Amino acid sequence: MPAVTADPLTLTRLPRLPQQDTAWRPVAKVVTASKHLEGEGFQVRRPFPGMDLSLADPFLLLDHMGAVEYAPGEAKGTPWHPHRGFETVTYVIDGAFQHRDTTGGGGLITDGATQWMTAGSGLQHIEQPTPELVAKGGLFHGVQLWVNLPRAQKRVPPRYQDIESRDVALLSSDDGSSVVRVIAGELAGHRGPGITYTPITYLHATVAPGARLTLPWPRDFNALVYALSGRGQAGPDGRPVDEGQLAVFGAGDALTVTAAGSQPLAGRNGWEILVLGGLPIREPIARYGPFVMNTRQEIIEAFEDFQAGRMGTVPAERVPHRSAADEPLPRS
User: Fold this and answer.
1) Where is 134: in which H helix or E strand?
2) CB 62 within 8 A of CB 120
3) pLDDT tens readout for residues 80-98
4) What strands lie across the sheet with 245-249, from one edge to the other?
5) Which fold has domain 8-278?
6) pTM surpassing 0.70?
7) Which residue intervals define the domain Pirin N-terminal in the entry (predicted)?
């Protein structure tokens, strides 16, 4: 796994939390991701939406891409398509994706890098595997997270952040066995590089086989743990969470997870998990295809603005494919 790593014994350690006096968050439910085809035909595993979205607020969608070993000619991406009203966060663990948008943003996302795109008032973008990956095949593994924007920020100017693997904050568990990467937000006073409109924390942890990881967590944030590979247990009651499953936590001040002592081959380095949390926005959500707003009328306006060319112009050398925004407007 090329995602940035280090010897955990050399890293700053997280604080040790007292077992008896800590309000550990219980696991409220475990959700198994459903499978979908996206873009030009690549498969994703999606734990949400599909469950009660209020449990994930301010997050809207999580797509787990791979891990997959592509044969030559198999790798696929997305055609040009628009967005408005939220942020897309693409984190590539293995392999590479290249991105362009109609504001001029873009670049290569590879091996532990993150592309953070704030769609805001609206733009179009395209995400594709590199020509080398298409031609030769190879390993690809990544995730895309959609983060909602509150009503007051839904029409902010589009913004693009390149977060290289070297930029993330690296910490170790309190016993020095596991690595925690802070991509955005704050953990025990350590901040990640991602700049967010909505207060969130976004972590990738490798929990050593048989090891326990404890994390202080803001009481006003929700808390989600998604297993990228391997298996383990979540919460004080030890609920099993395997690859492709999401643990949704209840209230409390801290999280506890434990990696299984025996891991499958894909998890030989440990249990690979995403840990997500954020301050719920608690506003009405109207979503249709690539747009997420607060009302149906705002969705109709988004379609009209896209069709009128107010979300950027696709470069002339590229021919746009049919996208979700070409569909009929939603009915009442």
Assistant:
1) helix 131-136
2) no
3) 999 999 999 999 999 998 9
4) 12-13, 169-172, 179-184, 200-207, 271-278, 224-229, 245-249, 27-32
5) Jelly Rolls (2.60.120)
6) yes
7) 42-147
